[in-house]
Amino acid sequence: MPQLQQPPLRVGFILLPLFTLNAFAGFIDSLRLAADKGGRSRQIHCSWHIMGPGPVTSSCGLEVHPQSSYRDPCHFTHIAVCGGNNYLDPHEDKALSDYLQEACKQGVKLVGVCTGTFSIARAGLLKGQRVCVHWNVINDFRQQFPQIDATPDRLFLESARVITCAGSSGATDMALHLIRRRCGPEKAQQAIRHMILNGMRTSNSPQTHFFEAIHEIRDERVRVAVLTMEQSLNARLDTQGLAERINLSPRQLDRLFRQEMGTTPMRYFKTMRLRYAEWLLHHTGSSIAEIAADCGFADAAHLSRDFTTHYGCSPSQSRRQGRQPQAASAAYG
């Protein structure tokens, strides 16, 4: 009997504890919808297999039972490591690292999905590779792996040995990229139609993000305060509320900020919100009123007033110019 032809795209999935379901589901369902006609899920043009030592629970509490333990990497064209909320655990999973190293030796391309890239880095397989991670974990990644060139400016990034993906909905775009390359554009379009998407974003599409480079902030309390601000850009946060979140008095927080950052907490926070508004103006089609709400301003008029003072032009002028304006004042003055 003639041997059946293998699908051109064969992905082995490894789910880490507290993996993010959105990224995994978007990736595997893109494969499923491209693999067969009519959503019938037969593994004809793409195949997938979930591996691991035992049941694993996602960050939302859903438990997944792998189909098998680690299979010989030769069965796959790609092995995807799907991470999530356990990325701060520095413990290396020796069995996983050994498996990934063997896959790399066999020429199987590794895929870091969300914080799965942390595990690939712990296996020593990202030296000399530029990688993409989610904006929310970029500072932690740089602290753990200062020798690896990491960026939060892409949805996904492909290098010689690995593909790294920010996660969330970007995992769907990455999957469609792989399908297009391995199975042809018509299969990618088939999946796009099934998922009722407008299209697929390319690898150099920017993450809808805003982050602060905190690795140079020496005081841990100020670092926590900046991270809290980063996660609260659409909120009307005041010094009292911020201080309470990190168990400091408003006076202590103000003194620490002046020492470390050369400005007050609320001035720093307002500049963060203005920078985020500027980013949204140049990377989204949101109205100025919508951007004002997203950035915690009372309304478009308040945003326009503060934006013009800081950048020397109005939000609408900045958008028309199509470029990032230069701040009229010092970065956090």
Q: Could you describe the 3D structure shown?
A:
This protein has 333 residues and is an alpha/beta fold. The chain is 42% helix and 12% strand. It contains 13 helices and ten strands. The strands form three sheets. The protein has a six-stranded mixed beta sheet with strand order 2-1-5-6-10-9, sandwiched between helices. It has a two-stranded antiparallel ribbon with strand order 3-4. β9 (156-158) and β10 (162-165) form a beta hairpin. The protein is globular, with a radius of gyration of 22 Å. Mean pLDDT is 89; it is low at 325-333.
Please list the strands of the largest sheet in the order they lie side by side. Answer: 2-1-5-6-10-9
Note the quaternary state here: single chain
**Could you describe the largest sheet, including whether it forms a barrel?**
6 strands, mixed
Poorly predicted regions: 325-333
- The coarse silhouette is globular
Q: What is the tally of beta strands?
A: 10
Helices, by number, come to: 13
- The pLDDT mean sits at 89
What share of residues is helical? 40-55%
Global structural class: alpha/beta
* Percentage of residues in strands: 5-15%
How is the topology of this model organized?
Layout: E1 9-15, H1 21-35, E2 46-51, E3 56-57, E4 63-64, E5 78-82, H2 94-105, E6 109-113, H3 116-122, E7 130-132, H4 138-144, E8 149-151, E9 156-158, E10 162-165, H5 170-183, H6 185-194, H7 220-230, H8 239-245, H9 250-261, H10 265-283, H11 288-294, H12 300-311, H13 315-321
Parallel strand pairs: 1-2, 1-5, 5-6, 6-10, 7-8
Antiparallel strand pairs: 3-4, 9-10
Helix pairs in contact: 1-5, 1-6, 5-6, 8-9, 10-12, 10-13, 11-12
